[in-house]
Structure formats: C-alpha cells, structure tokens
Amino acid sequence: MHHHHEPVHWFGTIFGSIVFLLLIAIYIVGVMISNKKYSQWPLYRIVLWSLGIICIAISLVGPIAEKAHNSFQSHMMTHLLLGMLGPLLLVFSAPITLLLRCLKVQHARIVSRILKSKYVEIVSHPIIATVLNMGGLWVLYVTPLYNAMHSSILLYSLIHFHVFLAGYVFTASMISFDPSPHRYSFIYRSIVLVLAMASHSILSKWIYANPPQGIDKFDAEMGGIIMYYGGDFIDLIIVIVLCAQYFRRTQMGIRKKELSEKSF
Amino acid sequence: MNHNKYNIWSGIFFGIGLVAFFDEAVFHQLLHWHHFYDKATLSVGLISDGLFHAFSWFSTVAGLFMLADMRKRKIWKKKKWVGGIFVGAGVFQLYDGTIQHKLMKIHQIRYNVEIFYYDLSWNVIAVILIIIGVILLRKSSSTGELNASSS
Hints:
The complex is a heterodimer of chains A (264) and B (151).
Chain A: H1 6-37, H2 43-60, H3 63-67, H4 72-92, H5 95-102, H6 105-115, H7 118-123, H8 126-142, H9 145-149, H10 153-174, H11 186-209, H12 217-262
Chain B: H1 3-30, H2 43-72, H3 78-103, H4 115-150
Helix pairs in contact in B: 1-2, 1-3, 3-4
C-alpha cells in the first residue's frame, strides 16, 4: 500500500515543517505585541503552544507520520498526539485570548461576535463536541473508512483535520483558558467528560477485539492498548484541570463570603 | 450538602478510585491475572467496564480535591472520610466481583485455575470492606453525638 514518491515526500516534509515553524513564530510575535499593551504574557504558555504544535507536526510530517501509513500502532500514537495531547497543550496556551489582545478593537469585536455566534455555541456544546469527537472516531475505526483513508489524499487530509479540530473543540468545551461565553456547569461537564472517556475506552477495547479492515490482529491489539492507556493519561490531565478550576472557584466564593461576613 | 455527608461522599469517591486503581495496577499489570479483553465479554459488560473505568479516574481526582477543600475549610472528619473509603471500595469490589466478572463476563479473576475459590475470596473481601466501613461510620456518628452532648 505504501508508495515511494521521494521528491513529493521531501517536499511535503519541508513544506509542513515550515508551516509549523511559522505557527510558533506567529504566536511569539503575538506575545510581543501583547506585552507592549498588557501585562507580561506568561512564558510557559509559549512553551505549551510550541509543544502542542510539535505534537501536531510529529503526527503529520516526518518519520512517525510516514510509519503510521503501514503500522496501526504508529497510527494510534499519531492519533493521540493529533487529537488529544496537541489540542490539550494548545488549549492551555490560551490562543484566543492572545489573538484578542493583538487585534484592534473593531477586529476583536468581530472575533468575539463569532465566539458568541449560534454556530460556535452549538459545536462547543459539551455533548455536541463529544459526539463530533468520539462519533468521528467510531465511524473511522468501525466502518471501512480507516482503510479507505490510506488510498485518498483528500480523505486523509479531511479526517486528520477533523480529528484535530474535534479534539480541540472537545477539550476547550471541558476546560478553557480562553473567554468562553457558553460555559456549562461543573457537574454537567463532568458527566459528559466521564461518558466521553468511557466511550474512548470502549472503542479501544472494541478495536482490540475487532481489527479495523486491513489491519492484522496483533497490530490492532497493540493499537487498542495504546489508545486505552494513552487516552487515560491525557483524559486524567483534563479531569485534574476541570476539578482544579472548579474547586479554586468555589473556594474563592467561600472566602469572599467569609470576608463579607467578617466585615459586618 | 452538610459536612458529614460531604466527608462520606469524598471518601466513597476516593475509595472507588482506589480499588479500581489497585485492580488495574495489581491484577492487570503486576500479576497479569486479569485479561485486557476476554472473548466471552458481553457488550453490556464492555459498556459497564468502560463507564466504571472512566468514572473511577474521575472519582479519584474529585475525591482528593474534596479532601483538599475540606482540609482548607477545616471541616475534615477523618473517621467519616475513612469509613466512606471502605464503603466505596467494598461496594465497587462487590459489583466488580459479582455483576462484572460473573454476569457480564468482562474477564475472570484468573485463568486456568479453580475459579470458584478466587471468586469467593474476592467477594468475601468486598463484604468485609463494606462492614468495616459501616462500623467506622456508625462509630464516628456516635462519637460525634457524644462530643455534641458533652460540649
């Protein structure tokens, strides 16, 4: 199934790498612009953004991405980087806040109008985001789509774009460091997150038992295990951050209440 | 939620997480008794396993955050909390040992052995955990009453 088109392959790798380096550079320029007008943008966010972009880059260009065409285990690792760890790191780096800081007021207004739009409200609803994210994966691995993906560049690009975007929107709908006008309660998000995690672990065991079309048994078993434990690790970070945000907020509420009671 | 209930629920959450983590670390990873996937598993078992697996991670983290919250607010009642842990751990262990292992056949405790004795000890331990938890909870409420009446 794998064809050697050396020149094309080299072109793709170099072109891709330039795009990813540009994305890191744009963020850094954004930070420089923001620092002139506002308080210092934390350095760790630049690091997180860069790591997130590197995760995505590894999953799309270079040796591991190449290997993922033939090996399901490698594919699963790139999937974890592209759909889970990369998006998580990017969410941590609060790119929308940075964007709003860099734009002129009238342009920032357009961005915030988009964020408040019905469309964004719908796709970033925790349940819709989960269905887009997990539903997409079920369709990819349970139907012959996975096999078809490797014979069409268009399908390959669309699916990878979807995996990343759905992963980002899902993560941001659970924990966000950016302004999010449509925020659901802690309990609501927790329940949806647990269901999403369950769906992820069920799918990985499903893959273990039912290899996707064109994948041999051992490769599917290893891929399923990588998906199961890799997913656990990244989901655990989301759970910790979700709880940390909630308990910090309630404690601040309690402290305010105590202070106001003392002042009487 | 009143402080007693908050303590007990935090313990139950953490107990569920603790026993699920123990199951994963000891029986799956160290001993290799449990199998990742058993061909006899019913679909409903796969779903139950997935849900409890996800919930156990969440409840470990939430239980510990509740503990930190209680300590900060100085409302932590150690006995109530520990009692909750035993109850949570025991109930989950019992559910795992009866419904998940036996009814839904998600996997057996161990393979190629006389499984009955393993099942028996598994579930007896679960019941013992629950009993210890209930005793701790009852004790903690009776001492609580004593303190309240003496003060």
